[in-house]
Specification:
The complex is a heterodimer of chains A (about 475) and B (about 1050). Chain A contains 19 helices and 2 strands. Chain A has about 475 residues and is mainly alpha-helical. In chain A, a hairpin with a 4-residue loop joins strand 1 and strand 2. The longest helix of chain A has about 30 residues. Among the domains of chain B are: about 180 residues, no CATH class; about 170 residues, no CATH class; about 250 residues, no CATH class; about 60 residues, no CATH class. Chain B is globular and about 110 Å long. Classes of the chains: A mainly alpha (about 475), B alpha/beta (about 1050). At the A-B interface, helix 3, helix 6, helix 13, helix 14 and helix 15 of A face helix 3, helix 12, helix 13, helix 25 and helix 26 of B.
Chain lengths: ~475, ~1050
């Protein structure tokens, strides 16, 4: 058995184990025979361990053979010759993808073990783990993706499972509203991503990262497109990354994501999903090198997000939102690092931050206990020093700044006013025009759709 | 431009509020505040009746009134009761008995030709009656086989009879027809004949006949229901604009208003989560809100446009909160007689936060940041301002552009009021279902007159779903009550006979005595101990042992109260390190402080810019604790404990004796005087019946309790209720130390209360979560007792393992096959597990409270469902003055626990705080659901999951006269007992005769059975079973094995 076979086998294992988990949980639910808690827990544990072990093996082999780039080809899945399009499933193992992949397995595995006890007896146990397996699959696929289509595929899985998990308690109003909002913002990011992918295809004839960044393995690749093209593609990808990583101006979804059960908040918004945007930027970092404008845009966006995050985090009064904005601060800094070309530091920062934040979010319900313990140790009530930043600001601006932070930078109301409203108005206008046309052509008033009552009018069950 | 601002500023439509009016308003608001949840900060969790505000009403009315006010369920749903009926938690005989009792003489009334009222109601209880919106019923009739087959529940005999009778009648009357008297009905039958094919009628098989009969029945019921002239029940019209607007526009104005209010309330009340607190908080809620939003050009929501102008207008006219409330109410068109209800509903719409504001304003002077006076008024003022801005916006944009705010409600009511709610289909369907199970022939129904139809439907509607749930509930309680009383009477007479036989051996004092808290969780611990050591004796007393104090441990930052909430302690007690360890202690305290500071820095640092960067880079290290704590919680905890031990204070003692004459928190004022100690010791021992020297054993263990678990915001709710949600260890320690003091004993001896010299007291602390026991002050134990203590310790260890084993049967994640030691390890792991949402079951399943000597309940398996209070009537006077003191505390406290569990279980999302999974600690005061929601008081779903909602049944060993006297003299007891918020029975140990308090007086109870199972030990009874268990007598062993 030569090393190629081992590489190929392990590589397939890494991707196949989460896929198998998703298949087991998904299919059993789909045919109406959901499996029990214990089986779910055991299957999750086993398959995550297999995936982790396989990726460790690849890492070990790569280190011992001194190989820095291992592609695993899984062939073309969709081929449209007339359009010169093929959906090419390819995974690559390099210095960027392996750490991120191992991180995903470790964190997902730990949180899976946590959730299997935390959600014990919850009616949504099965549903949670189905979403969890989609998420894991999405993370692994997008971290190992070797073509932009594959990355997009994983990216979509992550987005879908995230939105579904935010709306986990679907019998309540707020989780569903917030899940919907997140889904909408993800759509914008996805649209930008898709456009970028199309452009890449157009420019290089394929979605393969090799074609784009030359043959050098990460981080030494050199992109082969022109500066203008790099700028356009880069900006589109930056929008995609900003949506996924909740950078300004998309930040308002991050605290809203805290609607789901604690473990899902921890793993998705605290650690993995929120770093996926940064990961995308790392992956395409050779493009960033081509255009100074683009790099400045990246640095600015990161800096603004970091400052925004740190300001807003200071006034949050619930632990989960405070941690969410604290995460945002660090993601902002990571983006700045990427913009500055500090790729290894950014990678280390991502990994460290993800581990730390997961631990903090999982421990969030124990906050009262922790505060009590600390108070006892210190011997007096805990006090917060006002940060220098706030102390130097004149009194009259402090109030404004406080309001700005309390209102989370007005991002919600501004987007409602300048994006949502005009958007809806536009479509209402179109609807109206269509009706008029209709009337003109047929001479009849067009029928309005029936109003649907969302609430039942049965009073019996209450009083 | 904002309409209301215009109106108010330009036309001066709102006259300034008079002095009287604002006094009235203030009273009104303070009155309504009593409906708000009374739960304070979550760190000090005190159980109380969720419907405390309705305690003046009898229970059955109170739950309905409370349910209406809060929009919550008064009882479980019919389905859940029916499930209990199916699995035997309710028996048919209970339903019958309760129904007969409820109907009294009217049970025999005949309803038309349809049997007695009793029979009709019983049928309605026994068989599920489905109902629903018209569209659903229409679907049900058309799409299911409701018209082809009789309902499953119908007795085959009844079904056969109905079909045969109808068949005969049809064949007789319509085939060979003198059908001249059938006008009106022909139409129904003819269309049916067309449908089924009259020509082949003789060849119809049974299935076709069944379908025919059902079709016929349904047609008859439908036409019959249309004749009824009883008015349909109309849903009441909502009062708040929000509810009306929601109905016509599907826009929920509360969502927008609450979004702003939640954020601001949390910032206003924050006790230390945010590092930048609300500026100008000291101005009070109203003005602080103005300060923040006055110059805001961007409003917090699109619908709140104009908020800044409105605030500037109010500020420039110097309008105070009360005037603003009056102004808002009049702008909204709320009339004077609607005021109270409108204010109450407006406050209750965000009741968690409103309640917390009120608690922080009135009842939390000990918190770091209590709320200033008039906070609730400010809140209401702001809420109404926001309300009217949003309502006006929604009105303008989604309902009626030209409308006026003050006439909005009338406009909507005029528009929607005409839509009458019609119940004809529901009525027809109900009768259709009932007719099947009761065997009413279509023929009989066909001949009913209009009045008869109306009588029938009125009769059915008088027994509405709510009434049925009430009856179910009473029957559910009756089953368990009768079983309990039977068990008590049987078991006690069994024990009496045994004791008469071995009368002589029992006179000697027991080998040792254990005094526990009355808590239901200690029941299993006591029972296991008594099984392991038959020579010991156990007692139950409220777990603060009479030592009401502010306590500060050697490693604590503050004094915390350790006593029931209704007592305000005056004494302060501090734990100190032993003199010889002082040096070490100081060093360790310094180390603790340094570590604490460092951790705090790191904790805050990770959330800042620079600190976050540094910790982020090093954050990979967090992977180790993360993985270790989640995958190996118990081992990690052990390792942590070893490290903690290095910095923990060394040997300590309690500073119990006061130097100064007056108690206080100063150095000299700490502790009690000897005289005060004597009073506490005497009171405590007498209450449990230890009042004669010959009753004392050489060793008396005083055992306090508490609970420790991780990742559990509701931790305090698991602690000792008698210590106000604190841990009772220090109280036990203090009591033991007092009782050991020779000077205290001397004073007591002067009062003819001798504690023998060879008796020693020792304190300990039982952690009910991991079932560990910590002993205090063992150094002071006389050497003569060492050997006995060694035995006691060993038996305690066995008992706690046994108790852990018994607890494990209720945890689904613990295998039923666990051994006793594995069970102990399992509960230890649970307590340290971050991912465990059910560290222990708390008071879940509590249902009983026994007050009396242990001798009649000892050996009775109570399944951890009973509070056990010791009381010896033979040492009390005929009036029951000792009993009175005991009950003054026990009845309200236990009823509070029981009723909180009751309501949190009955409506987990309304009264309880829903599932723990999404909880988010806010302001260090409470939990929200997810990112932002109302503050959720009450108990989480995971805590009450296995509970059975029954009112607490007190079984008190006393006479009817003494109990009547105590009820008459004590307002708080009378309210609970006479209002039936608790169930009460008195018990005579000599005759095992029981009197049950029913309909305002004690009535003799006749046991249903004299049989309860006898088993060798608890484990023989409970093992292998997860669900609730019945009673069993445990055979007594003479000596410990």
């Amino acid at each position: 058995m030569n090393s190629d076979t081992v590489f190929h086998f392990s590589g397939v294992c890494v991707v196949a184990s989460p896929a198998l988990l998703f298949a087991i949980l998904g299919i059993t639910s789909l045919i109406g025979r959901p499996v029990g808690e214990r089986i779910i827990a055991r299957a999750t544990q086993t398959l995550v361990l297999i995936g982790l072990f396989a990726s460790m093996t690849i890492l070990g082999l790569m280190l011992s053979y001194g190989i820095r780039y291992v592609p695993i080809e899984l062939g073309n899945w969709v081929v449209i010759p007339e359009q010169h399009f093929h959906f090419h499933l390819k995974f690559i193992f390099d210095r960027l993808s392996i750490p991120f992949c191992i991180l995903s397995f470790i964190l997902c595995g730990t949180v899976g073990a946590f959730a299997s006890r935390y959600l014990h007896r919850d009616p949504g146990y099965n549903r949670f783990f189905v979403c969890y397996s989609i998420f894991l699959l999405g993370m692994v696929v997008s971290s190992l993706a070797g073509t932009i289509e594959t990355l997009f595929f994983g990216w979509e899985l992550v987005g879908l499972s995230s939105a579904l998990l935010v709306a986990f308690f679907h019998e309540k109003v707020n989780p569903v509203r917030n899940g919907m909002r997140i889904w909408t913002i993800y759509r914008i990011a996805d649209a930008a991503f898709l456009l970028a992918a199309l452009m890449l295809h157009h420019l290089t004839g394929a979605g393969d990262f090799v074609g784009l960044m030359g043959t050098g393995s990460w981080p030494d690749g050199h992109a082969t497109i022109t500066e203008q093209h790099a700028l356009i593609v880069g900006i589109l990808l930056l929008i995609a990354a900003a949506g996924k990583s909740a950078l300004v101006p998309f930040s308002s979804w991050l605290p809203r994501a805290m609607e789901g059960p604690t473990p899902s908040s921890a793993i998705f918004y605290g650690s993995l999903s929120v770093h996926l945007g940064a990961y995308l930027l790392l992956r395409v970092s050779p493009i960033l090198e081509l255009s100074l404008t683009l790099r400045i845009a990246v640095i600015l966006l990161g800096l603004i997000s970091a400052i925004y995050g740190t300001l807003v985090a200071r006034v949050q009064t619930d632990i989960k939102s405070a941690l969410a904005f604290a995460s945002l601060t660090q993601v902002g800094i990571i983006v700045v690092e990427i913009g500055c070309g500090l790729r290894y530091i950014a990678l280390i920062h991502i990994i460290g931050h993800a581990c730390l934040r997961t631990l903090q979010l999982l421990r969030a319900p124990t906050l009262l206990h922790d505060y009590h313990t600390l108070e006892n140790a210190i011997g007096s009530p805990l006090s917060h020093k006002k940060s220098i930043f706030i102390r130097v600001i004149p009194e009259q601006y402090r109030n404004r700044l406080y309001r700005f932070s309390l209102e989370r930078g007005y991002l919600d109301v501004l987007s409602d006013q300048f994006i949502v409203r005009p958007f809806i108005s536009l479509f209402c206008w179109c609807d109206n025009m269509e009706r008029r046309w209709n009337k003109l052509l047929t001479g009849n008033e067009s029928k309005k759709s029936d109003p649907i009552k969302t609430r039942s009018d049965s009073m019996e069950d209450y009083l | 431009m904002n309409q209301s601002a215009h109106q108010a500023s330009d036309q001066q439509t709102v006259p300034p509020v008079s002095e009287d009016d604002s006094v009235d308003l203030r009273h009104l608001i303070e009155h309504t505040a009593h409906y708000l949840p009374a739960q304070g900060p979550i760190t000090v969790f005190v159980h109380h009746n969720t419907l405390h505000a309705f305690e003046d009403l009898p229970f059955e009315e109170g739950v309905v009134a409370g349910g209406r006010t809060f929009g919550c369920h008064p009882f479980l749903s019919e389905d859940r009761y029916r499930k209990k009926l199916d699995n035997g938690r309710i028996r048919i005989q209970d339903l019958e008995a309760v129904l007969l009792d409820d109907l009294g003489e009217s049970s025999e009334i005949l309803i038309g030709g349809f049997g007695t009222r009793f029979a009709l109601r019983l049928a309605m209880l026994q068989f599920p009656l489905h109902s629903g919106p018209v569209s659903e019923l229409r679907w049900f009739i058309a799409q299911t086989d409701a018209l082809r087959h009789f309902r499953q529940e119908v007795d085959p005999v009844v079904r056969e009879q109905t079909i045969t009778a109808t068949r005969h009648w049809i064949m007789r009357e319509f085939l060979n027809g003198a059908s001249d008297n059938q006008q009106g009905h022909e139409q129904i039958l003819n269309s049916l004949f067309d449908q089924f094919g009259k020509s082949s009628i003789e060849k119809w098989n049974d299935r076709k006949w069944e379908a025919f009969v059902l079709h016929f029945l349904w047609r008859v019921c439908s036409t019959g229901a249309q004749k009824i002239n009883a008015p349909s029940k109309q849903p009441s019209q909502p009062l708040r604009h929000r509810d009306l607007l929601l109905r016509v526009t599907d826009m929920d104005t509360d969502l927008i208003v609450h979004d702003v209010l939640i954020r601001f309330c949390a910032a206003f009340l924050d006790q230390g989560i945010s590092s930048w607190s609300l500026p100008q908080r000291n101005l009070g809620f109203y003005h602080a809100f103005f300060q923040v939003y006055a110059d805001s050009r961007i409003s917090p929501a699109i619908e709140l446009k104009g908020l800044d102008r409105e605030i500037q207008r109010l500020e420039s006219s110097d309008t105070g909160p009360l005037e603003s409330i009056a102004e808002s109410l009049s702008l909204l068109g709320v009339t004077a007689d609607e005021r109270e209800a409108y204010i109450s509903q407006s406050l209750l719409a965000l009741r968690g936060w409103a309640g917390m504001l009120w608690q922080m304003e009135t009842n939390a002077e000990w918190m770091p940041q209590p709320a200033p006076a008039d906070t609730l008024i400010g809140f209401l003022a702001i809420r109404l301002i926001l309300d009217r801005l949003v309502i006006e916006h929604v009105m303008k944009h989604s309902y009626d552009e030209t409308g006026q705010l003050d006439s909005l409600r009338t406009a909507i009511l005029n528009q929607t009021g005409k839509q009458k709610f019609c119940q004809t289909s529901q009525r027809a369907f109900t009768i259709f279902q009932l007719a099947q199970v009761r065997g009413w022939n279509p023929e009989d129904l066909l001949h009913l007159s209009q009045t008869q139809w109306s009588t029938l439907i009125k009769e059915i509607e008088a027994f509405s779903s709510l009434e049925r749930r009430r009856i179910y509930h009473l029957a559910f309680e009756r089953k368990y009550r009768n079983e309990t009383l039977d068990a008590v009477s049987t078991h006690s007479s069994r024990l009496r006979i045994q004791q008469d036989q071995i009368n002589t051996s029992r006179l000697t004092a027991p080998a040792y005595q254990v005094v526990c808290c009355i808590d239901d969780r200690e029941e299993s611990f006591r029972r296991h101990l008594e099984e392991i050591a038959p020579e010991c004796e156990t007692f139950g007393i409220a777990g603060f042992f009479g030592v009401a104090m502010y306590y500060r441990g050697a490693a604590d930052a503050h004094f915390t109260p350790l006593c029931p909430v209704n007592i305000k302690p005056v004494h302060y007690v501090q734990e100190e390190t032993l003199h010889s360890f002082e040096q070490v202690s100081r060093r360790r305290a310094e180390t603790r402080r340094r570590i604490g500071r460092a951790i705090h820095q790191a904790h805050v640092g990770t959330r800042t810019f620079i600190g976050g960067f540094l910790t982020g880079i090093l954050g990979s290290l967090a992977a180790f604790p993360l993985v270790a704590r989640i995958l190996f919680p118990r081992t990690t905890a052990q390792v942590r404990r070893i490290f903690n031990r290095i910095v923990q204070p060394p040997g300590t003692q309690l500073r119990l004796e006061r130097i100064d004459s007056r108690p206080g928190s100063q150095e000299e004022q700490l502790g009690y005087s000897i005289e005060e100690m004597a009073v506490i010791v005497e009171g405590g021992l007498k209450a449990i019946g230890l009042s004669r020297s010959e009753l004392f054993s050489p060793l008396v263990v005083i055992c306090g309790h508490g609970s420790a678990s991780l990742n559990n915001p509701h931790k305090a709710a698991y602690d000792c209720g008698a210590c106000g949600g604190g841990r009772g260890g220090p109280n036990a320690r203090a009591f033991a130390q007092m009782a050991n003091d020779p000077r205290v004993r001397r004073i007591l001896a002067d009062r003819q209360f001798m504690i023998p010299d060879n008796s020693s007291f020792i304190g300990c602390y039982h952690n009910t979560c991991d079932d560990s026991v910590t002993w205090y002050d063992l150094d002071g134990l006389p050497s003569s007792q060492r050997k006995l203590f060694a035995k006691v310790e060993k038996q305690f260890n066995q008992a706690r393992a046994g108790s852990a084993h018994e607890r494990c049967r209720r945890f689904e994640s613990a295998e039923l096959a666990l051994s006793v030691n594995e069970a102990l390890r399992h509960v230890e792991g649970r307590a340290e597990d971050l991912s465990q949402t059910r560290p222990e079951c708390g008071h879940a399943t509590n249902a009983l409270c026994f007050v009396g000597r242990r001798k009649w309940s000892r050996g009775l398996f109570l399944d951890r469902r009973a509070f056990l209070t010791s009381y010896d009537p033979s040492q009390d006077d005929a009036d029951g003055s000792i009993l009175e003191r005991t009950l003054q505390a026990v009845i309200p406290v236990c009823a509070g626990i029981n009723l909180e569990y009751f309501f949190s279980y009955v409506d987990s999302f309304g009264y309880g705080c829903g599932t723990k999974l999404a909880h988010n600690i806010t302001s260090l005061l409470g939990v929200m659901d997810g990112a932002a929601s109302d503050l959720r008081p009450g108990l989480p779903l995971q805590m009450v999951e296995i509970h059975e909602p029954v009112r607490l049944l007190f079984v008190i060993e006393t006479t009817v006269d003494a109990m009547n006297r105590i009820i008459a003299d004590n307002q708080s007891i009378a309210r609970l007992v006479q209002g039936n918020w608790v169930q009460l029975a008195v018990f005579d140990v000599e005759t095992s005769q029981i009197h049950l308090f029913h309909r305002g007086r004690f009535q003799p109870y006749l046991p249903e059975t004299q049989e309860i199972p006898t088993v060798d030990s608890s484990i023989h009874w409970y093992r292998g079973w997860r669900d609730h268990l019945g009673f069993a007598s445990i055979r007594e062993h003479q000596t410990s094995p």
